[in-house]
Write a structure and sequence with these properties.
258 residues; 81% helix; globular
Length: 258
């Protein structure tokens, strides 16, 4: 069931990535637009297929489905890296920022790797997983803050300033997480990990509420930006997903002490 939950969450994210990429290409880049749209269809089909499976589904069927989704995740990762290469080599002019394309390709790589681990049953030990997952998601949250700051209209000075503050906060949390990672395995103590999760949770909750407010303001047309309403909801859902991971890790740590 864990792989199904991952697929249900990340297949929607991948579908939306393809949609955002398609919007960022210029009108003459028809081949890239078409390729992006093909991924929308692929991940919509995966979503539909995942909805038909449950805890009673044969493990072998789930394993084969995981392999199918892994191939799709690896394929969209390759497409995103191709687009990034075209942008960085100035072979195309795109409204897709290079960091955004790199960001969504990192998420595709994470998704594919996660499926592979679940399929092979080769999951990281809990202390290592806590640190590694937080390093990954803290960078994602820092990126989101930067994107929001750049996509808001410059006249929205207060919101732009808030986004920059979040960017700085998550950069610092990321550096701390990377330091903790480099100190492994000696840093893998329960007190350190508990404090690590508590500190990150406070900042993620704050960012999630900022994203929620921004989403509501965008949907109500109360602020000036070039942020698509779906993108506002997209980054909110990812913050919520990170909080669920933090809470799950916290519960595991508590259970170890009982």
């Amino acid at each position: 069931m864990q792989s199904l939950e991952e697929i249900r969450f990340w297949s929607r994210i991948m579908k939306e990535h393809a949609f955002f990429l398609s919007l960022g290409f210029t009108a003459d880049q028809t081949k890239l637009i078409q390729e992006a749209r093909q991924y929308i269809v692929i991940f919509e089909q995966i979503e539909e297929q995942a909805a038909n499976y449950n805890a009673q589904t044969s493990p072998e069927v789930i394993r084969q489905f995981n392999n199918q989704v892994y191939q799709a995740a690896a394929s969209i990762w390759a497409f995103k890296r191709k687009v990034l290469g075209l942008i960085l080599s100035c072979k195309i002019i795109s409204n897709n920022m290079p960091l955004l394309v790199d960001h969504i390709s990192r998420e595709a790589a994470y998704f594919a790797k996660r499926l592979k681990e679940l399929n092979e049953g080769k999951l990281k030990p809990l202390p290592e997983a806590i640190i590694k997952e937080n390093v990954f998601f803290l960078r994602i949250m820092a990126d989101h803050s930067k994107f929001i700051g750049h996509l808001l209209d410059p006249s929205e000075r207060k919101l732009v300033e808030q986004a920059r503050d979040f960017s700085h906060d998550f950069d610092q949390l990321l550096f701390q997480a990377q330091d903790l990672d480099s100190m492994r395995p000696q840093s893998e103590t329960v007190p350190l990990l508990e404090q690590f999760l508590d500190q990150n949770r406070v900042s993620v909750v704050s960012l999630r509420e900022f994203k929620k407010t921004a989403r509501e303001l965008i949907e109500a047309c109360k602020i000036k930006s070039i942020i698509h309403p779906l993108l506002a909801d997209h980054v909110y859902r990812e913050a919520n997903h990170f909080l669920e991971i933090i809470d799950a890790f916290d519960e595991h740590l508590v259970s170890l002490q009982l």
